[in-house]
Specification:
Blueprint lengths: L3 E3 L9 E3 L14 E6 L7 H12 L6 E8 L2 E8 L15 E2 L4 H14 L9 H4 L12 H5 L12 H9 L31 H15 L3 H13 L20 E2 L7 E2 L16 E2 L1 H13 L6 H7 L3 E2 L10 E4 L4 E5 L2 E10 L2 E7 L5 E7 L9 H20 L1
Antiparallel strand pairs: 1-2, 3-5, 4-5, 4-15, 6-9, 7-8, 10-11, 11-12, 12-13, 13-14, 14-15
Helix pairs in contact: 1-10, 2-6, 2-7
């Protein structure tokens, strides 16, 4: 995600907005809930639980955290801290939350499922599908958009875009015109010659899907992702409201108490690059299918999805060594390899990963933002804890 920008919607609100994800008093004592499970789960891992407890006690750390590990038909839930500092209730698997750039995996899923249906081809170009976009961009392919080698300038760093957000963080953008903010710019580099994570890429992916089908992107999400996977608590809103109940997102800047920023920003300004709202439960189902679930993609398309660029990282970086594929990242940890996506947005940081066979999956959600430019020390700690959870996922 792009560098942090200061956004102050009103004098009393503190909001450090990391627009790449746009995704962006005393430390709360942890309200720890024991691990819960369905099926026949392994015994709760006290070492894992302790790490979550320590994370929510960290100065500047999240008020709450929830992690779901699914192994075959067994699901274990670990949580610490609170979903809402006002009521003190713990995070739940059915709490809605902003999944930030994990939404890019959803636009990737729409695109690759359309490739399987021969509605799109990875070599389709912007010029062929979206001829109204700048001529300088016309040679960029769908493949390059999905693996962030397109060179498209990032609309979320455009001064005019940022100025609107500073004036009104809940501004309702025309999501399908977000690329207009950089339409006067050339490509950052020749297509395919370099890697650079960009929010513009996934806006263009969604627009290509619409052009190929004549259907709104929101409807394509429902037809190709939500319904096949049974995701009943996942949506792509335009406004700033979150469905109830939700995992509250916070700006945490000690010594001030955590400030609730869950609904400070509207979602229309991130759309297909980061606007999806889901729950830990739904997100876990999705990433299992996206990482390796049988029948979700053809074997040929799955192979193309997993053509990785070494060192290409999601934002924020995930656990272990990162490499980038088509709207999916490979995370090579000391215990093995998982596939998925990360994301950060003001109030939230997300990790969703699964194994190549689709049998194991992990979602790890905290309710404050961290990235390489927002609390990098906290990110280092979060990545270390995430790696231990990946190890637990793979060892049982």
């Amino acid at each position: 995600m792009p560098p942090r920008s200061e956004v102050r919607p009103r004098p009393r609100v503190r909001l450090r907005l990391s627009l790449a994800g746009l995704a962006a008093s005393a430390v709360l004592a942890a309200l720890v809930q024991p691990a819960q499970a369905t099926g026949t789960p392994p015994a709760p891992d006290r070492a894992l639980q302790k790490q979550l407890d320590d994370l929510v006690r960290t100065a500047g750390g999240p008020p709450g955290v929830i992690a779901l590990l699914r192994q075959g038909d067994r699901t274990s839930v670990y949580r610490a801290g609170v979903a809402d500092t006002r009521t003190g209730r713990p995070p739940r698997t059915t709490d809605h939350m902003r999944i930030a750039s994990v939404a890019k995996a959803f636009s990737g899923a729409v695109a690759l499922r359309l490739v399987d249906r021969q509605k799109l081809d990875l070599d389709d170009t912007i010029g062929e599908r979206l001829p109204s976009l700048p001529v300088a961009w016309h040679q960029v392919t769908l493949r390059q958009l999905l693996n962030h080698t397109s060179g498209l300038p990032d609309f979320s760093t455009a001064p005019a875009f940022l100025a609107i957000l500073r004036e009104d963080p809940r501004h309702h953008f025309d999501s399908r015109r977000l690329l207009d903010f950089v339409a006067d710019r050339d490509l950052v580099f020749p297509p395919g010659s370099a890697y650079e994570y960009s929010n513009s890429d996934n806006i263009a992916v969604a627009l290509m899907a619409e052009a190929a089908t004549g259907q709104p992107y929101e409807r394509l999400l429902a037809q190709l992702v939500y319904r096949p996977l049974g995701l009943r608590q996942t949506s792509l809103p335009q406004g700033y409201r979150l469905p109830r109940p939700y995992l509250h997102g916070y700006d945490v800047t000690p010594p001030a108490p955590p400030e609730d920023i869950s609904e400070v920003l509207g979602a229309s300004g991130v759309w297909a690059s980061g606007g999806i709202v889901s729950t830990p439960k739904d997100l876990n189902v999705f990433v299992r299918a996206w990482a390796g679930g049988r029948g979700f993609l053809s074997e040929e398309t799955r192979s193309l999805q997993r053509t990785f660029i070494p060192g290409a990282a999601s934002e924020p970086a995930g656990p272990g060594v990162n490499a980038g594929g088509l709207a999916i990242f490979r995370y090579t940890t000391r215990c093995g390899t998982v596939y998925g996506h990360t994301g950060n947005f003001p109030g939230y940081t997300q990790l969703a990963v699964g194994t190549a066979d689709g049998r194991r999956s992990l979602t790890f959600s905290i309710n404050t933002q961290t990235s390489k430019s927002v609390k990098p020390e906290l990110l280092a700690k979060v990545r270390a804890v995430q790696e231990d959870f990946v190890c637990a996922l793979l060892r049982h």
